[in-house]
Amino acid sequence: MNPIIRVGANRVVALRYRMKNSAGETLVNTMESEPVKFVYGSGEILPALESALKGMKIGEQKNFTLPAAHGLDQPFSFDVVIDDICWIESEPATKGNDCGPGCAC
User: Fold this and answer.
1) Which residue blocks in the chain are alpha helix, DSSP H?
2) Is the model's pLDDT at 89 over the cut of 70?
3) End-to-end CA distance of the chain
4) Would you say the pTM of this structure is higher than 0.70?
5) Three-state DSSP class for 83?
6) Cα separations (Å) of 30 from 9, 22, 89?
7) Rounded mean pLDDT of the chain?
8) Contact 71, 97 (CB under 8 A)
9) What is the spatial distance between Cα 101 and Cα 105, in angstroms, rounded to a whole number?
10) Dihedral angle of Cα 57, 83, 52, 71, to the nearest 10 degrees
11) Residue 23 phi, psi dihedral angles, 5° rounding
């Protein structure tokens, strides 16, 4: 049985999201697009956003708000769906988890 892969250090995360400002206006919506990919812990996204995603698993959905702090001038709300998670090349592969090109699953 394969362990459940969760969002965390040294993982490539593919997600779709909707970001709204404090007035409720949608600023970004990738829910109907290809997932956005990033390497957790690489500094590609805000640390507060990484923190909110930590521990999520493939298929999980989450709604949260990041407060006006840590580089944000206002609160932003997010609706997130995790589409895929895999180890980066330096991490050991887990047999049976095929997570796509560039991953070591």
Assistant:
1) 47-53
2) no
3) 14
4) yes
5) strand
6) 23, 19, 26
7) 86
8) no
9) 10
10) 160
11) -90, 0
User: Cα(102)–Cα(105) distance, rounded to whole angstroms?
Assistant: 9
β-strand 36-39 against 26-29: which pairing, if any? unpaired
Please give the backbone phi and psi of residue 50, each rounded to the nearest 5 degrees, phi first.
-60, -45
Measured distance CA(20)–CA(23) in Å, rounded:
8
DSSP 88: -
Structure tokens at 14: 């593919």
Q: What digits encode the pLDDT tens for the residues 20-53? A: 999 999 999 999 999 999 999 999 998 989 999 9
Amino acid at 72: L
Q: What are the distances in angstroms from CA 80 to CA 15, 33, 95, 96?
A: 7, 13, 27, 26
Q: Are 65 and 52 in contact (CB under 8 A)?
A: no
Contacts 24+ apart (CB under 8 A), 65-68: 68/22
**Contacts for 101 with CB less than 8 Å, ≥ 6 apart:** none
